[in-house]
């Protein structure tokens, strides 16, 4: 069977030695795997730093060719609630592993997308199946995982990949795919990736689809086209006093690229400092933005909270806030 | 006979847009009693009952219909089922037990669910159940015992072509544009769409209000007027209507800018934000006590965002957000199914794939990748249409 021509998959490391960065973590995980027994693991760190890759390597090392039967991958942000997760875990854990290893492995990606209550339920599930299953949880922030779960896991903190690490991987792909790339192009690629290796490789492949000679300008072009929707337009409408217009643009922006409310808030918070308004108002708007983000987590309708924030921007446009 | 009955799907081939569900139910009946019960779940008007009836017909099974009240009435249940569960050999024709709308079993009827589980255990015939929301906790014992089959909301295209067919056969001569409007309004509920077609065919009026999806009582306009203009009564304001607080909140959200500007605009939305904050706490912790706070912020809080209410008549508008979100979901439905397939292949979340879709587009345009992801023809057409 040929490997799929999606480079993030084609060039996903399949052995410990192939991974770039995270050397200390790999050393410790490798020794756990060699003992043929792993505890529950928690991988915390930014996207594209190797969490899923390491989980896959672990099961491949443990189970060899049979890894697929003994491995269940779930993504907490895609599943419809903890009930679904539990049901799937239950179905999977019902049968015992056939191999000499007496457990199966469940990888729960983006576990921090689960609410606290759901995590409590997950904790019980972990306990119930602890004799037949090991959990590997991954998250961006370990602080969003409740203590009882953290204490049941060995926690590994993944660092953002360094420039040299990403460059090493990209150079390998460039060579293999018979591309050429200037040094400047590597720099541009790294900047656009924000340390996320998946993003860097996707950008490389998207650029290579245009031409095998990768230049800095091409990278910039592709990555700017892929930038998530611009909140600047929304804020411009609001500052100009057009609340209804701003609200409409906001909804369109969110719907077009399926952007979540929290992502919009983050973008707004950055954009405040580029607006043509007095510095003291910028500070007050930042406070309002923080308040809105806080309320968004507690509340039930992101869009209501965003509208409340937009109203403050309308006022700021008139010198208040 | 109403059009919805007349055009109810009779055979598998009549069931629209549910290829997977049809396959699943065929397999279920063939493999019975490997699994004894099957649960069809999905939004209203997607063909759950029709599919169950069609399956019975295709397999020459007699349908025994049960409802939730039968379950609690043990005597009656046994009477109905005795021939079905015990004397099966005496009957030439096999049977199918149909249990419509199991989520209709309410809190006090919880015992009914237990009975249902027992029934699934003991039955000699396949049981097919339907419900809208299969993930509610009260159904979890049933879920564990059943094969779950999802019915998807119909897309606009499918709905339009069915309406076209009916319109032609019934000689209604409706314009495609009109049928499209009905289809959009139905939001994937085919029964609602056919009902609408029928009602308009009798009136013969081609003008329709795109927004009367949910039949909003005049009450809501009165509420808005009282809230924004008369500013009384406060806390009992919402008691006079059947509309839910959530629905009213959407209306207030839509119309605040018509009544308030500047400081008052900020204050009004802040009150609404507080109402939503408490609503979030209600949902998360089931603390219904907080309802009084949501109510207070949503009424008096918004009302008193400024000292003197705006004079004169204001034309209030229906909330546009929900319809807009739904239309958008239609538009990105293909994108989502592609993202899902891609995400599974590369071990990331569908959300992430959706966010990165622009970068991924050139990658997904490769034929080999499309094959590997098993993209459908429509999905490939969608990708090709992107620049």
Main CATH class of the largest domain in chain B: Alpha Beta
CATH structural fold name of the largest domain in chain A: Rossmann fold
Shape of chain A: globular
Give the quaternary arrangement of the chains.
heterodimer
Let me know the number of strands of chain B.
5
What is the CATH architecture term of the largest domain in chain B? 3-Layer(aba) Sandwich
The name of the CATH architecture of the largest domain in chain A is 3-Layer(aba) Sandwich
Q: What is the rounded Rg of chain B?
A: 25 Å
Report on the architecture of this protein:
- The complex is a heterodimer of chains A (321) and B (387).
- The mean pLDDT of chain A is 90.
- Chain A is globular and about 70 Å long.
- Chain A has 3 domains: 22-157, Rossmann fold, CATH 3.40.50.300; 163-225, Helicase, Ruva Protein, domain 3 (Orthogonal Bundle); 232-317, Zinc Finger, Delta Prime, domain 3 (Up-down Bundle).
- In chain A, helix 5 links the parallel strand 3 and strand 4 (133-139).
- In chain A, the strands form 2 sheets. In chain A, strands 2-3-4-1-5 form a 5-stranded parallel beta sheet, sandwiched between helices. Chain A has a two-stranded parallel ribbon with strand order 6-7.
- Helices cover 55% and strands 10% of the residues of chain A.
- In chain A, helix 2 packs parallel to helix 3, helix 4 (81-93) runs parallel beside helix 5 (116-128) and helix 8 crosses helix 9 (197-208).
- Chain A is an alpha/beta fold.
- Chain B is an alpha/beta fold.
- Chain B has 4 domains: 3-150, 3-Layer(aba) Sandwich (Rossmann fold); 156-203; 219-321; 332-385, no CATH class.
- In chain B, 57% of the residues lie in helices and 7% in strands.
- Chain B has 20 helices and 5 strands.
- Chain B has helices at residues 3-6, 19-31, 48-58, 68-72, 74-85, 110-122, 140-145, 156-169, 176-186, 190-203, 219-230, 245-259, 262-285, 291-303, 321-331, 333-346, 350-355, 357-364, 367-372, 377-385, and strands at residues 37-41, 61-66, 94-99, 127-131, 146-150.
- In chain B, strand 3 (94-99), helix 6 (110-122) and strand 4 (127-131) form a beta-alpha-beta unit.
- In chain B, helix 9 (176-186) packs across helix 10 (190-203) and helix 12 runs antiparallel to helix 13 (262-285).
- The longest helix of chain B has 24 residues, at 262-285.
- The model of chain B has no long low-confidence stretch (mean pLDDT 83).
- Classes of the chains: A alpha/beta (321), B alpha/beta (387).
- Chains A and B meet through helix 1, helix 4, helix 9, helix 10 and helix 12 of A and helix 7, helix 12, helix 13, helix 15 and helix 16 of B.
């Amino acid at each position: 069977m040929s490997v799929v021509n999606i480079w993030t998959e084609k060039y996903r490391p399949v052995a410990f030695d192939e991974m770039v960065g995270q050397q200390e973590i790999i050393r410790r995980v490798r020794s756990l795997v060699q003992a043929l027994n792993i505890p529950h693991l928690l991988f915390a760190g930014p996207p594209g730093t190797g969490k899923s890759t390491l989980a896959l390597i672990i099961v491949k090392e443990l189970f060899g060719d049979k890894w697929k039967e003994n491995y269940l991958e779930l993504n907490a942000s895609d599943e419809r609630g903890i009930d679904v997760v539990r049901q799937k875990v239950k179905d999977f854990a019902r049968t015992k592993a056939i191999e000499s290893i007496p457990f199966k492995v469940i990888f729960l990606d983006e576990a921090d997308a689960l609410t606290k209550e759901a995590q409590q339920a997950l904790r019980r599930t972990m306990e119930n199946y602890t004799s037949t299953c090991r959990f590997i949880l991954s998250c961006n922030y370990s602080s969003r995982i409740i203590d009882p779960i953290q204490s049941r896991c060995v926690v590994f903190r993944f660092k953002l990949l360094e420039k040299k690490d990403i460059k090493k991987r990209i150079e390998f792909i460039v060579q293999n795919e018979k591309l050429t790339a200037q040094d400047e192009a590597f720099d541009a690629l790294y900047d656009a990736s924000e340390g996320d290796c998946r993003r860097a490789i996707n950008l490389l492949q998207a650029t290579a689809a245009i031409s095998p000679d990768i230049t800095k300008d091409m990278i910039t072009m592709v990555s700017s086209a892929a930038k998530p929707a611009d909140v600047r337009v929304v804020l411009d409408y609001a500052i100009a006093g057009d609340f209804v217009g701003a609200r409409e643009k906001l909804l369109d922006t969110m719907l077009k690229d399926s952007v979540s409310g929290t992502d919009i808030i983050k973008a707004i918070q950055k954009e405040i400092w580029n607006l043509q308004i007095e510095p003291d108002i910028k500070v007050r708007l930042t406070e309002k933005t923080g308040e809105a983000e806080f309320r968004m987590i507690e509340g039930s309708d992101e869009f209501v909270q965003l509208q409340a924030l937009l109203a403050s921007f309308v006022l700021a446009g008139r010198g208040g806030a | 006979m109403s059009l919805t009955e007349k055009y109810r799907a009779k055979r598998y081939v009549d069931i629209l847009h549910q290829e997977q569900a049809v396959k699943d139910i065929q397999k279920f009946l063939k493999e019975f009693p490997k699994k004894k019960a099957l649960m069809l779940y999905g939004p209203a008007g997607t063909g759950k009952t029709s599919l169950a009836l069609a399956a019975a017909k295709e397999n020459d099974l007699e349908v025994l219909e049960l409802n939730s009240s039968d379950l609690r009435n043990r005597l009656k249940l046994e009477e109905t089922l005795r021939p079905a569960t015990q004397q099966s050999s005496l009957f030439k024709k096999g049977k199918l037990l149909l249990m419509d709308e199991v989520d209709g079993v309410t809190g006090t009827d919880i015992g009914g669910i237990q009975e249902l589980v027992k029934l699934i255990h003991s039955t000699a015939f396949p049981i097919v159940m339907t419900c809208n929301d299969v993930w509610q906790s009260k159904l979890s014992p049933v879920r564990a015992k059943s094969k779950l089959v999802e019915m998807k909301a119909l897309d606009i295209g499918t709905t339009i072509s069915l309406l076209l067919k009916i319109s032609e056969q019934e000689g209604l001569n409706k314009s495609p544009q009109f049928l499209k409007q009905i289809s959009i309004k139905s939001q994937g509920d085919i029964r609602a769409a056919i009902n609408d077609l029928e009602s308009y065919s009798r009136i013969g009026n081609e003008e329709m209000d795109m927004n009367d999806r949910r039949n909003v009582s005049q009450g809501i306009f009165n509420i808005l007027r009282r809230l924004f203009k008369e500013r009384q009564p406060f806390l009992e304001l919402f008691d006079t209507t059947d509309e839910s607080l959530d629905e009213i909140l959407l209306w207030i959200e839509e119309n605040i800018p018509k009544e308030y500007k500047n400081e008052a605009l900020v204050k009004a939305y802040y009150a609404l934000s507080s109402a939503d904050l408490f609503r979030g706490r209600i949902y998360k912790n089931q603390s219904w006590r907080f309802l009084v706070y949501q109510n207070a912020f949503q009424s008096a809080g918004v009302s008193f965002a400024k000292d003197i209410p705006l004079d004169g008549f204001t034309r209030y508008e229906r909330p546009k957000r929900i319809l807009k979100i739904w239309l958008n979901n239609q538009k990105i439905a293909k994108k989502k199914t592609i993202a899902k397939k891609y995400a599974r292949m590369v071990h990331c979340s569908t959300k992430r794939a959706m966010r990165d879709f622009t970068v991924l587009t050139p990658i997904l345009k490769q034929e080999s990748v499309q094959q590997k992801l098993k993209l459908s023809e429509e999905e490939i057409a969608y990708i090709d249409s992107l620049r």
